[in-house]
Please model this.
Amino acid sequence: MHITQLNRECLLHLFSFLDKNSRKNLAKTCHKLLEVFQDPLLWSLLIFHSPVELKKDNFLLGPALKHLSICWYSERVKVCNIEDWMKNSFQKDFCKRHENTVSDFLLDVCNRCPNLLSLTLSGCGHVTDDCILQLLKNCPNLKSLKLENCVQITDHTLEAVTLHGASLRTLHVDFCRNVTQAGLQRVREKCPSVMLRADRSANMIPDSKPGKKLMLEKASRKLVQL
Model:
């Protein structure tokens, strides 16, 4: 029996075991398999590990998407979480080339994936409060929001959670240095049912603190003297 003789349910099951690239390559072999690749039911989970993956035409966004994870751990991408004044010209150029990659992608998610249940973002240094606000508004069933090392996330995201996160049950803002204890306390007060975690966040020095650059320079000089 040829693979194309299998019914739609069997083909969807087979496709489910393949990664995004393998699914795309198999879909190129015939029209029937392309139709399976384009079936929204196949795309309930998406995981990305690099900016390049978000730009590939090897996945489908649709109402079936329930779980989304974008986690960048490479040394080059970590540059995006360094404060601008500390970056050299090469690092700034690298960041500029993909500074809207995740935000533009999440905007598509807002428009096409209203049934999203969980979102995990790690190392996404260019994601802003506005981006998370739009997602909370457009994905009312979101139950889990995990943000790690997303340096542009502030108390505005925490406020958006209290206003638009009615379905939210889990919120992580780990290593997000621009959230504050006051913002976290408001979430605890207004959303007592949310399991909140903020590992190494509110005790870190926020980017917006006046004189931070000078303070860090003085600390560095003291360390050198020691």
